[in-house]
Amino acid sequence: MKRLLIAATILCTVILIIPTMLVLFVSETEETTTSTVRSVAVDQPEEKWSYNPEDDMTVAVFRSQQNEIEELPLEQYVMGVVASEMHPNFEMEALKAQAMTARTYMVKNILQPRDVQVPDGAMVTDTVTHQVYQSEVELKEKWGADFDLYMARIQEAVLSTQGQVLTYEGEPIDAMFFSTSNGYTENSEDYWHSEFPYLRSVESPWDQSSPRFTAEKMVSVAEFQNRLGVALPEDGSVGTIVERTDGGRVAKVVIGGKELSGRQVREKLELDSSDFQWQRQGDQIAIQTRGWGHGVGMSQYGADGMAKEGKSYEDILVHYYRG
């Protein structure tokens, strides 16, 4: 049985990058059949959240709007990601969990570069292709008078978890996250082709508080057929959902004899989620969705809901990343 732990262990592949770090990792043991979390301090500084950017590693981010590469310390990059990917008013433990996923994503990308095209000299872009990142200048413009308050919360979340990453069998994980579930997360192979033992479908009932938990989109019949490359049946029906995933999203649908995956439909029609149902209303198709995002990994609204119930960031991560 695999369990999630936080232990005072340094990855040999990462030690040259981050000299002292707490590593959240999944290991195999026969001692227990329950998930347990243990936190051990490593070289804790006397000052709370002591941080010197000059001692941090440098990362290179391609700024898509500016068409240039920005180099900055890792933890400052993580701050810019957390500030861009999660609302700073979310609970502190949720923000910490987001900091962990953001840092893990970057460290994994450094150790195991992905096959995504990035300009020479850059490690990642600042878009959803990798992680959305905004600089302090951009955040000041975005937040206005709330900047100091919001940035203080982001700094606390990042610096109180600095150096920590999520690993599985000694390697940084694919720390996927998304906005809002439909009540369950997805198994990784049900949305992508790759199966990861720590990206399993789990319950996430807290997401019902999200403003994007449900949505409806109207698409004309002509646009529907054009985007999906199908011809709707003459009987006025739309199509048949023939299979759903463990997470309740559409796995397969047949429209006019053509089989499509739920992901294909979601992406081609630009739907919030692959958990959908539809009805034909004259020359329009009404499509109702539940959730927002691909559904794999940590739900941000789920994390916030758990934090509201008093759960720690470790509890949140243990729930969404299973071994």
TrEMBL record:
<dbReference type="InterPro" id="IPR051922">
    <property type="entry name" value="Bact_Sporulation_Assoc"/>
</dbReference>
<dbReference type="InterPro" id="IPR013486">
    <property type="entry name" value="SpoIID/LytB"/>
</dbReference>
<dbReference type="InterPro" id="IPR013693">
    <property type="entry name" value="SpoIID/LytB_N"/>
</dbReference>
<dbReference type="Pfam" id="PF08486">
    <property type="entry name" value="SpoIID"/>
</dbReference>
<feature type="domain" description="Sporulation stage II protein D amidase enhancer LytB N-terminal">
    <location>
        <begin position="64"/>
        <end position="168"/>
    </location>
</feature>
<protein>
    <submittedName>
        <fullName>Amidase enhancer</fullName>
    </submittedName>
</protein>
<dbReference type="GO" id="GO:0030435">
    <property type="term" value="P:sporulation resulting in formation of a cellular spore"/>
</dbReference>
<dbReference type="GO" id="GO:0030288">
    <property type="term" value="C:outer membrane-bounded periplasmic space"/>
</dbReference>
<dbReference type="InterPro" id="IPR014225">
    <property type="entry name" value="Spore_II_D_firmicutes"/>
</dbReference>
